[in-house]
Write a structure and sequence with these properties.
The protein contains 18 helices and 25 strands. With 602 residues, it is an alpha/beta fold. A hairpin with a 6-residue loop joins β7 and β8. The structure holds 6-O-phosphono-alpha-D-glucopyranose.
Length: 602
């Protein structure tokens, strides 16, 4: 939530910051702003609305400078408005701040500052940081930032400038991501790598309560006691193309189309890099696996529960929303393996769930896409998905990479537990290895999916049903549709239909039925008949050669595959269906209203 970028160097900071904000817009897009240092003061432009609105303002009122900070906002405290946009400058016009996170004690701090006569301009929690910094400022910006950080409660990634220091940009973080990029023309702070990739692939990952002091030709690191730190400079292997649309109308479509490649790369990287990691894990000592995550990553966990149970015959495999797990005082201990699934590695609830699990002695294993993220760094074991940067807010390729990595993990666990033979392991691994090609076959059906989806824009509600592992993937189909098309949707286990959702079925309701479980085909088809006889239409997705399409039943056939791994195929159709429904409604698919890609606040 919220993207921040800062630059100090030899070039004009403004185009660099605006371009960086474009790459960070997925983190929040209700308002944006930019401040540059200009002769003992700041020049600030802030604008409610998308980044394009800020660009239009900048065209009317151009800024320039060699040092600046920018922000794209997802509002938490205070409505989206010009004044609530960042950067925030203190009332003495001395210190400017961009902030990502939530200051939990801001009310108390604000009351104190107001009591001392300091006037506030905005309703945000973030403004207290700028006001506090000015209040504590003693001529040394580093001291001031350290002092402020000891007072703040909550989460923050900050970029701070002071009018007295024309070439110093300071960054600090706690529980929100921040990277430092270094280039031959200047140095950067940013919430995420794509924002700086045009200029450099050399970055430092800041840890909590570490401070970076950037000048145009140097970067220094300190801990909170102002002791200098040595940090490793990392090289990013993604290229710029992976963060561009590459001719597609939306990132989401590009990312859907990349899935065969991403599946291949994730499988190869798992086999080459992670088998030995898992060999060091004493799986037999666990009596419980808890998979915890948020959003689509949670849905990947629901699918994985079926796979782990089926292959590993584990006494207990639970999937739990991280936002619930963190407060549930779950019965877990050193015999529990807690699996954290997260694209960003920065989701606040998933981080909290991981810390809760560790505090209770559980072993933690994370499946994460972003290298250097909090969950990747803090979990006891980390397996990286090879999805590359995912820009569209609604996840597609990262979800698919999570799924395939979870399958592989389940297979390896099953071998270690002696539940399957090596021969079965090989068979399962070759079924997994065949998924990328099957995904390619599905993508060839894009035209018919697009055509069908174009007839579905008028629905107010769409229901998704499936049984067993098909139900698990129906959850993701429903989430994807509502996220980007704003059509109400619910996923139901087929067997539960008669306990609720069927009361909502009427003439021309659409029910999407997923069917890859051969033994349950008859059951899901009888659900389909029950809704059709009440006037519904059914979109059947699956490997169902016996189905007879008619004006009430439209079928999208999937290639034959093992039932256990079929969610990787169903989901591609579900993603394309949602995408084309939303595209036909003319919606802003990559940035759906009210959502953000990385939910770094509770
Ligand atoms: C947001 C995104 C989802 C994502 C979820 C969890 O809601 O829009 O696409 O699944 O966060 O994010 P994570 O980064 O932890 O996978």
């Amino acid at each position: 939530m919220c993207g921040i970028i800062g630059y100090v160097g030899n070039k004009d900071a403004v185009p660099i910051i605006v371009d960086g904000l474009k790459k960070l817009e997925y983190r929040g897009y209700d308002s944006a702003g930019i401040a540059v240092y200009k002769q003992n003061s700041f020049d600030v432009v802030k604008q409610k609305g998308r980044l394009a609105a800020l660009e239009a303002r900048l065209a009317e009122r151009p800024l320039s400078g060699r040092m600046g900070i920018g922000h794209t906002r997802w509002a938490t405290h205070g409505e989206p408005s010009d004044v609530n946009s960042h950067p925030h400058v203190g009332s003495k016009n001395k210190i400017a701040v961009v902030h990502n996170g939530i200051i939990e004690n801001y009310k108390h701090l604000k009351e104190r500052l107001e009591h001392w006569g300091i006037p506030f301009a905005s309703q945000t929690d973030s403004e207290v940081i700028a006001q506090l910094a000015e209040h504590y400022y003693n001529g040394d910006l580093l001291d001031t930032v350290i002092h402020v950080s000891t007072v703040l409660e909550g989460s923050y990634a900050l970029g701070v400038m002071c009018v007295d220091d024309p070439d110093i940009l300071i960054a600090i973080k706690k529980d929100n991501p921040l990277i430092i990029g270094v280039s031959d023309h200047g140095n950067f702070i940013a919430s995420d790598v794509p924002a700086v990739l045009k200029h450099t692939n050399k970055v430092y990952y800041l840890n909590d309560k570490e401070i970076a002091v950037l000048r145009n030709n140097s970067v220094e690191f300190f801990n909170i006691d102002k002791e200098p730190l040595e940090k490793p400079l990392e090289t990013i292997t993604w290229n710029l193309d992976s963060a561009e649309k590459g001719g597609y109308p939306h990132f989401m479509l590009k990312e859907i189309m990349e899935q065969p490649k991403i599946l291949r790369e994730t499988i190869n990287s798992a086999v080459n890099n992670y088998k030995s990691v898992i060999d060091t894990l004493d799986v037999a000592k666990f009596n419980k696996i808890v998979i915890t995550a948020c959003g689509s990553a949670y849905n990947a966990g629901v699918v994985a529960k079926y796979v782990f149970e089926r292959l590993c015959r584990f006494p207990s495999v639970e999937t739990e929303l991280a936002s619930e797990f963190r407060y549930r005082d779950a019965v877990i201990n050193e015999k529990t393996l807690v699996v954290l699934v997260s694209q960003s590695g920065e989701t606040a609830d998933t981080i909290a769930a991981m810390r809760e699990a560790k505090s209770k002695g559980a072993v933690t294993l994370s499946i994460v896409n972003v290298v250097g993220s909090t969950i990747a760094k803090e979990a006891d074991f980390c397996l990286l998905t090879a999805a590359g940067p995912e820009i569209a807010v609604a996840t597609t390729k990262a979800f698919s990479a999570q799924l395939v990595l979870l399958y592989i993990l389940a297979v390896w666990f099953a071998v270690k537990l002696g539940k399957i033979t090596q021969k079965v392991e090989q068979e399962l691994m070759s079924q997994i290895a065949a998924l990328p090609e099957k995904a390619e076959d599905i993508l060839k059906q894009i035209d018919s999916i697009q055509k069908y989806a174009s007839t579905c824009v008028g629905y107010k509600s769409i229901f998704f049903i499936g049984r067993n592992i098909d139900y698990a993937i129906a959850l993701e189909g429903s989430l994807k549709l509502k996220e980007i098309s704003y059509i109400h949707s619910e996923a139901y286990a087929g067997g539960e239909l008669k306990h609720g959702t069927i009361s909502l079925v009427e003439e021309d309701t659409l029910v999407v039925a997923i069917s890859n479980c051969a033994t349950l085909y008859g059951k899901i088809m009888s659900n389909a008949e029950q809704v059709i006889s009440r006037g519904a239409k059914v979109l059947l997705i699956g490997n169902c050669p016996a189905a007879k399409p008619d004006d009430k039943l439209f079928c999208i056939a999937l290639p034959e595959s093992s039932e256990l791994f079929s969610p990787s195929l169903s989901v591609i159709v579900l993603q394309l269906f949602s995408y084309y429904v939303a595209a036909n409604k003319g919606l802003d698919i990559d940035k759906p209203r009210n959502l953000a890609k990385s939910v770094t606040v509770e």
